[in-house]
Amino acid sequence: MTPEQRARTCADLMWSADRASQALGMAITAIGPGTATLTMAVRDDMLNGHGICHGGMIFTLADGAFAFACNTHNQRTVAQSNQITYLAPGRAGDTLTAQATEVSRIGRSGTYDVVVQDSDGQDIALFRGLSRTIQGQHFDEDAS
């Protein structure tokens, strides 16, 4: 199995059980070893009292990209710590794109950076996620 096939299989298995991301209308547009790209259209019910995309929605999209990226190696992995910096607002009708990239993976710890962009390709948020592997795999690679 290639690293790309492993990443895709892990993503497909995780996606099938990820009701939160599905309910928010997210989509995985790219997946590879240590990387993931997710998109989400900003709906009116995602706007805050200022009429802009709620920061929690942007965080959730970034966290989703982080989660899929850090689980591409067929080791169950969870968030240990996350941090986000908002640079510009997301707006109703925007399709936001979160691209996660693995920075480091040593032992059970990983570091991932996520850039969230609006429909025009402007960076609107920067997210850093620290991951920790836990017991188990997404699938048995030795099963025939």
Describe this structure in words.
There is one protein chain. This protein has a 6-stranded antiparallel β-sheet. It has helices spanning 3-17, 19-23, 55-70; strands spanning 27-32, 35-41, 77-86, 95-106, 109-117, 123-133. A hairpin with a 5-residue loop joins strand 5 (109-117) and strand 6. It is built from 3 helices and 6 strands; from the N terminus they run ααββαββββ. It is α+β, with helices and mostly antiparallel strands and 144 residues long. The two termini are 12 Å apart.
Q: How many E-type strands?
A: 6
Major sheet: 6 strands, antiparallel
Q: Cα-atom Rg, whole angstroms?
A: 15 Å
Bin the helical content: 25-40%
Beta content comes to 35-45%
* Approximate shape: globular
Runs with pLDDT <50, length 5+? none
Assembly state: single chain
- Mean pLDDT across the residues is 96
Major sheet: arrangement of strands: 1-2-4-5-6-3
N-to-C SSE string, H for helix and E for strand: HHEEHEEEE
The helix count comes to: 3
What's the N-to-C terminus distance? 12 Å
- Which structural class is indicated by helix and strand composition? alpha+beta
